[in-house]
Specification:
Number of helices: 1
Distance between the termini: 24 Å
Oligomer: single chain
Largest sheet: 5 strands, antiparallel
Structural class: mainly beta
Helix content: under 10%
CATH architecture: Sandwich
Order of helices and strands: EEEEEEEEEEEEH
Strand order of the largest sheet: 1-9-6-11-4
């Protein structure tokens, strides 16, 4: 089950393998890490620091975000409260359940946001207006 309570959502550790000989690190995402099959992968990059991405909710889609380079903030909103998560480690990810409004902001120079999602793109799954989101949540 995917946690939808904002107070219980936490960053998830991604397994990290460190080379004994100083050749760097490797992180692996296998099917046991996420509670869904990955249907689409995309990434955001060259996002100006004063720009906001996201600004929507999904009816069904679930996504896992990773800052593979740099950092950015993810603000989650359940219609009653908001919570901020800073992603800045390539071995930590944020699992975002459906039904939450999300905004990505404060991108550092060179930040890359990797998104692993539970479905292919479907415009009908998006809620792009915050007032419509509040109605969707029953507020």
């Amino acid at each position: 089950m995917i946690e939808k309570n904002l107070d219980k959502i936490e960053l998830i550790d991604i397994p990290k393998i460190t080379a004994d000989d100083g050749r760097g690190n490797l992180s692996v995402i296998e099917k046991e890490l996420l509670p869904y099959d990955i249907k689409r992968v995309y990434y955001l990059y060259d996002v100006p620091s004063d720009t906001q991405r996201g600004g929507h909710a999904h009816r069904e889609l679930v996504q896992f975000l990773i800052a593979v380079s740099g950092s950015f903030d993810v603000v989650l909103d359940d219609g009653k409260q908001r919570r901020n998560f800073t992603l800045n480690r390539p071995f930590k990810g944020l699992l975002i359940p459906n039904g939450l409004w999300r905004s990505l902001e404060n991108f550092s120079a060179g930040a890359v946001c990797l998104s692993l999602v539970s479905d292919v793109y479907k415009e009908s799954d998006y809620i792009r207006n915050y007032d419509d989101f509040k109605l969707f949540k029953g507020a």
